[in-house]
Automatic annotation (TrEMBL):
<dbReference type="InterPro" id="IPR044043">
    <property type="entry name" value="VanA_C_cat"/>
</dbReference>
<keyword id="KW-0560">Oxidoreductase</keyword>
<dbReference type="InterPro" id="IPR050584">
    <property type="entry name" value="Cholesterol_7-desaturase"/>
</dbReference>
<dbReference type="Pfam" id="PF19112">
    <property type="entry name" value="VanA_C"/>
</dbReference>
<dbReference type="GO" id="GO:0004497">
    <property type="term" value="F:monooxygenase activity"/>
</dbReference>
<keyword id="KW-0503">Monooxygenase</keyword>
<dbReference type="InterPro" id="IPR036922">
    <property type="entry name" value="Rieske_2Fe-2S_sf"/>
</dbReference>
<keyword id="KW-0408">Iron</keyword>
<dbReference type="GO" id="GO:0032259">
    <property type="term" value="P:methylation"/>
</dbReference>
<keyword id="KW-0808">Transferase</keyword>
<keyword id="KW-0411">Iron-sulfur</keyword>
<dbReference type="InterPro" id="IPR017941">
    <property type="entry name" value="Rieske_2Fe-2S"/>
</dbReference>
<dbReference type="GO" id="GO:0046872">
    <property type="term" value="F:metal ion binding"/>
</dbReference>
<feature type="domain" description="Rieske">
    <location>
        <begin position="9"/>
        <end position="110"/>
    </location>
</feature>
<keyword id="KW-0479">Metal-binding</keyword>
<protein>
    <submittedName>
        <fullName>Vanillate O-demethylase monooxygenase subunit</fullName>
    </submittedName>
</protein>
<dbReference type="GO" id="GO:0008168">
    <property type="term" value="F:methyltransferase activity"/>
</dbReference>
Length: 356
C-alpha cells in the first residue's frame, strides 16, 4: 500500500533548476517534464509520449511545444496533441497529463493530485521569506535513499540532535532536557530550551559565542512533508524569554521533502537568518556547516531504511520521544484514507441524527 500523498503541494524544483531545456524529474513515482515557456512561466507535463512511451524530455522544443523524439507527435504546453505526422485526425486520447504549477520566492511548486482540489492558498509561506530584515538563502538538495516518512520524522525529533550531531547542531548538554510536543493545529511541533550551556559547533563558528548561551530548537512539521527548524542562541546575560527569540542569533532551516518514490526522497533545504543579512560569505559558511550536519542525518536515515526493508523478527519499540512521529504517521494515514475513498456523506439523511 502506498505511503505517497498526492493531494498536496510539493517543491518540484528550485527556480534555478528550470530553464528552457527539457528536464526530467521524478515525483511520487511519476516522470515529470519541466521547462520554461517563452514567457518565462513553467510548464509541467507527464514525461511520457502516449504513443510508444518515449520520455518527451528526449525530444525537442518547437516554441512552447514539445516534439517527441521517436515519431514526431507534438504536444502543447498544456498537454494537448497538436500534430501527428502522417495523419490529420488527432484522437482525444493522444494527449499528455499536465500538472498545476505555481512559482513563488524562487521555488517551483507542483500539485500531483486531483486538480480540482489544488488551492494556491495552501502553498507554504513564512513572512520572513519576504522580510528585508531577514536573509533568505537557498542551499542544496539532499538525495536520500529512504522513504520520505523517515526523513520527515527526523525533522520533528529534537532528541536525536545530541547523538547524531554532537559537533555541529548539538552536544551532550541537551541529552536529558525534556522535549515538549504539541500535536494540535496544522503543524506538529516539538521543542526544547537548553539554558546556560556551552554553545553548539554551529553557533561557535557562525555566532561567535565564547561563553555559555541559552539556546533553543523548535521543530515544526507540516503535512505531508515540509519542516521548519527554528534554532538559535543568545548570550546567557541577555536573559531572553521564549517569545523573544528574535533578540538572539536566530536561524530557520526549511526542508522541502519531495518523495521520488517509496524508497527515495529529495530534500531541498534553505535557511533564513536575522544576522549578517548582507553578508554573502555568511551564507557560504552556513551552507558548509549545514551540509556537514545533514550528511550525518543522511547516513542514519539510509541505514534505517535499509534495515526496515529486511525481514523483521520482532516489532519495533516506541519510547517517550516518539509522540510527534507517531501522530505524524497517524495523520498521513488519514490523508491517504481520504484519497482512497470518496466522501459522499456531506448531506446526511434524516435517518441519522448526529450528536457530536
Amino acid at each position: 500500500m502506498t505511503t505517497l500523498v498526492r493531494n498536496a503541494w510539493y517543491v518540484a524544483a528550485w527556480s534555478s533548476e528550470v530553464d528552457d531545456t527539457l528536464r526530467r524529474f521524478e515525483i511520487l513515482g511519476e516522470p515529470v517534464l519541466l521547462y520554461r515557456r517563452i514567457d518565462g512561466s513553467v510548464a509541467a507535463l507527464h514525461d511520457r509520449c502516449p504513443h510508444r512511451q518515449l520520455p518527451l524530455s528526449m525530444g525537442k522544443r518547437i516554441g512552447d511545444r514539445v516534439q517527441c523524439g521517436y515519431h514526431g507527435l507534438t504536444f502543447d504546453s498544456d498537454g494537448s496533441c497538436t500534430r501527428i505526422p502522417g495523419q490529420d485526425k488527432i484522437p482525444p486520447s493522444a494527449c499528455v497529463a499536465s500538472f498545476p504549477i505555481v512559482e513563488r520566492h524562487d521555488i517551483v511548486w507542483i500539485w500531483m493530485g486531483d486538480k480540482a482540489r489544488a488551492d494556491e492558498a495552501d502553498i507554504f509561506y513564512m513572512p520572513q521569506m519576504s522580510d528585508p530584515a531577514w536573509h533568505a538563502h537557498q542551499g542544496g538538495a539532499l538525495h536520500i535513499a529512504s522513504n520520505y516518512l523517515n526523513v520527515a520524522e527526523n525533522l520533528v525529533d529534537p532528541a536525536h540532535v545530541s547523538f547524531v550531531h554532537p559537533t555541529t547542531l548539538g552536544n551532550s548538554a541537551s541529552e536529558n532536557v525534556p522535549v515538549h510536543v504539541v500535536t494540535e493545529g496544522r503543524a506538529i511541533t516539538a521543542w526544547r530550551w537548553i539554558r546556560d550551556a556551552e554553545p553548539v559547533g554551529f553557533f561557535k563558528a557562525f555566532g561567535g559565542f565564547e561563553g555559555n548561551v541559552d539556546r533553543w530548537h523548535y521543530y515544526h512539521l507540516h503535512l505531508p512533508s515540509l519542516a521548519v527548524i527554528d534554532f538559535g542562541s543568545a548570550a546567557v546575560e541577555d536573559r531572553i524569554a521564549e517569545d523573544e527569540r528574535d533578540r538572539g542569533n536566530r536561524v530557520f532551516a526549511l526542508h522541502f521533502m519531495t518523495p521520488v518514490d517509496e524508497n527515495r526522497t529529495v530534500d531541498r533545504w534553505m535557511h533564513l537568518r536575522n544576522t549578517a543579512v548582507d553578508d554573502a560569505e555568511a551564507s557560504a559558511r552556513i551552507d558548509a556547516l549545514l551540509q556537514k550536519a545533514f550528511a550525518e542525518d543522511v547516513a542514519i536515515l539510509e541505514a534505517v531504511h535499509a534495515e526496515e526493508r529486511r525481514p523483521q523478527h520482532r516489532r519495533p519499540i516506541r519510547i517517550a520521544i516518539d509522540r510527534g512521529p507517531m501522530v505524524y504517521r497517524k495523520r498521513i494515514g488519514e490523508l491517504l484514507e481520504r484519497e482512497r475513498t470518496e466522501d459522499i456523506s456531506a448531506e446526511p439523511t434524516p435517518a441519522f441524527v448526529y450528536h457530536d
